[in-house]
Amino acid sequence: MTTKTRMNVYFDPDLLAKVEALALRRQVSKSAIIEAAVASFLSGDTSDRLEAAMSRRLDKIGREIHALDEDLAVLGETVSLFVNIWLASTPPLPESAQAVARAKGAERFEGFMQTLGRRLATGDRFLKELSRDVEPPDQRETEMPKGV
Questions:
Q1: How far apart are CA 97 and CA 123, in angstroms?
Q2: Fewest C-beta atoms under 10 Å: which of 56, 70, 74, 136?
Q3: Under a CB-based contact definition with an 8 Å cutoff, are residues 11 and 19 in contact?
Q4: Total count of domains within the chain
């Protein structure tokens, strides 16, 4: 059994508050936090550990950027496809119907913005739904009829 020696130290109140918050988050004692910090400070391999931690963080950031890049590509293709189909299938309106169409368009746009705001507030995302609804490419290719 190891024995520990008690030591009284003084901390800046802001630093002590940060130590207390970290101890609560990690569910360890303040003494354990301080002991780990002092051991890290006194060890000779601090730069190696810092480099390894930075490398792990950069790798994680790289993976997150890759995922965002894929999401952005999906969204770009989605908008492009929608606009292409919409423009190809929507006939022009006669002059007499354009004022009514503008008013209806403004009403629909307001509804769209409200729905979008609700979805963003609740965390519902199109890409999450897409990943649940779309089959993997290898299954889709075998099930799709030829010429589609």
A1: 38
A2: 136
A3: yes
A4: 2
